[in-house]
Amino acid sequence: GKHKPIWDPSTDCGDYVVATGCNDMLVTGRKKEQKLYYKQTTRPGALKSLNMESMMRKWGGGEILKRAVRGMLPKNRLRDKRLERLKGEFLLFSFPRWRGIGLGRWEMGDGGWEIGSCGVSGG
Q1: Which segments of 73-106 does DSSP mark as H helices, in order?
Q2: Are the C-beta atoms of residues 89 and 20 closer than 8 Å to each other?
Q3: Tell me, what's the pLDDT at 116?
Q4: 55 by DSSP, 3-state: which?
Q5: Does residue 57 have a pLDDT over 70?
Q6: Residue 70: which of 61, 83, 57, 58 has the closest Cα?
Q7: What is the pTM for the complete model shown?
Q8: What's the alpha-carbon Rg for the chain, to the nearest Å?
Q9: 52-59 vs 61-72: helix axis angle to the nearest 10?
Q10: Exposure of 34 by Cβ count < 10 A (0-12 exposed, 13-18 middle, 19+ buried)?
Q11: How many angstroms separate the Cα of 108 from the Cα of each of 16, 29, 62, 86, 115?
């Protein structure tokens, strides 16, 4: 984060971002039907595309958020390292045994460990 005294654009300071509520994502217009996400397997003729609605059903809103953030980050050697520290519902709720790994924002509730009441938090 830029609030740290050791911040430099060419270094990685190690802050995490936790996003919750990714499956309740709302979009305007007809993006759910018209926005396409592409995947290429390096084989000739193997370009595959999914629209946003299919992506939500198959992978959830976390994957859409992850791809959007990936496009906004600088295209350099730090992008993949920074993207690894974006934690969201694509990790938390898809794999119940991984709950709480590397987050530190969990609270002990009546039913066990629960996520804190924040939407998106950094730190």
Answers
A1: 79-84, 89-92
A2: yes
A3: 47
A4: helix
A5: yes
A6: 83
A7: 0.67
A8: 17
A9: 120
A10: exposed
A11: 21, 40, 24, 23, 9
